[in-house]
TrEMBL record:
Protein name (record): IclR family transcriptional regulator
Stored PANTHER family: HELIX-TURN-HELIX TRANSCRIPTIONAL REGULATOR, ICLR FAMILY, TRANSCRIPTIONAL REGULATORY PROTEIN
Listed GO MF terms: DNA binding; DNA-binding transcription factor activity
Keyword Aminoacyl-tRNA synthetase part of the UniProt annotation: no
Classification of source organism: Bacteria, Bacillati, Actinomycetota, Actinomycetes, Micrococcales
IclR-ED domain span: 71-255
Length: 258
């Protein structure tokens, strides 16, 4: 019984950390964490105090908001040594941003979600702020998640596609299983995904999967911007540039390194 309780506590700790991470630099109030996690207020309060005592969370008293703490930064820096893809992707992000003027991003798959790891701002003065470091989306929602989901094996992808209740509740009927299957088919045909303002109206995105050495889609490069910058003609040019960089990055990841 104690093992079950211990596992439950670990799950709740992970949930609280993810909820706060999703808020990005803005942080979250106690009420916001309770609402987003679905846990009771006393439970959340106890977890926050315990995590803060170990430096895993930090409380901004002036704003009344909780943020990820310094110990998580240290852990992340250590873990980054095992996941050097961000370092490899930086030149690709810079090239994309410089060549297109749009904002370029690297996202990683984590379970049934994508998490944005890095970005490079383009020179065009009007930008979309849908995506930023630490932002999570369910697979199949943003352009990165569509690109990854499109190239997963069918047996792995279909349960994610079919389980659309939470996805449609948060992002609308355009993210139901039927429309999503159509976007995935289009992605496999083009080689890259197109998100025509489905998360935020007028904010477009293109995504291209990046593959690990075993050939599985584990990351994605993406470009985001406003709709007039992603119209037919230029959209295809952007897609080809994105595919070229994704292929180059997949090759670099597969190449032996010291």
């Amino acid at each position: 019984m104690s093992g079950i309780q211990g596992t439950q506590v670990v799950g709740r700790v992970a949930l609280v950390l993810r909820v706060i991470a999703r808020a990005g630099g803005a942080g979250l109030s106690l009420t916001g964490i309770v609402r987003a996690s679905g846990l009771t207020r006393p439970t959340v309060h106890r977890l926050l105090k315990a995590l803060a005592a170990d430096g895993l969370l930090d409380f901004d008293e002036a704003a009344g908001r909780w943020h990820l703490g310094p110990e998580l930064y240290v852990m992340g820096a250590v873990a980054a040594g095992r996941f050097a893809v961000e370092h490899l992707a930086r030149p690709a992000l810079r090239r994309l941003a410089e060549a297109t003027g749009e904002s370029a991003f690297l996202s990683i798959r984590r379970g049934d979600e994508t998490v944005c790891l890095a970005r490079e701002e383009g020179s065009f003065p009007v930008r979309s702020f849908v995506l930023y470091e630490g932002k999570r989306f369910p697979l199949g929602v943003a352009s990165a998640g569509i690109a990854i989901l499109a190239f997963l094996p069918g047996g792995e992808a279909e349960p994610i596609i079919s389980d659309d209740a939470a996805r449609t509740a948060e992002y609308g009927p355009t993210h139901a299983a039927g429309p999503l299957r159509e976007r995935l088919a289009e992605t496999r045909e083009l080689g890259y995904s197109v998100n025509p303002g489905l998360v935020v109206e007028g904010s477009y995105g293109l995504g291209a999967a990046v593959f690990d050495p075993s050939g599985r889609p584990a990351w994605a490069l993406s470009l985001t911007g406003i709709e007039p910058r992603f119209r037919p003609g230029r959209r295809e040019e952007l897609g080809e540039q994105l595919l070229a960089e994704a292929h180059r990055l997949s090759t670099a990841i597969a190449s032996p390194r010291p």
